Amino acid sequence: MRFAYGRLPWRRGAVLGSALLVLVTAPAASTATERSGPAPARSVILLIGDGMGDAEITAARNYSVGAAGRLAMDTLDASGRRTTYAVDERGRPVYVTDSAAGATAWATGRRTVNGRVSKSHDTDRPMPTLLELARDRGYATGSVTTASVADATPAALTAHVTDRSCKGPADMAACPADTRAGGGEGSIAEQTVAARPDVLLGGGADHFAQTVTDGPFRGRTVTQQARAAGYQVVRDRTQLAAARPGRPVLGLFAPEYVPVEWTGPPAAPGGTAPQRCATRNPGRPAGTPDLAESTRAALDLLTARAHHRGAPGRGFFLQVEGASIDDRAHEADPCGQLGETLAFDRAVAAALDHAERHPRTLVIVTADHGHATQILPHDARPAGLSATLVTDEGGVMQLGYGTALPGETQEHTGVPVPVAARGPLADRVRGVQDNTSLFGTVTAALGLR
Ligand code: MG
Ligand code: ZN
Question: Which residues of this UniProt protein bind Zn(2+) 2?
Answer without folding.
Answer: 50, 368-369
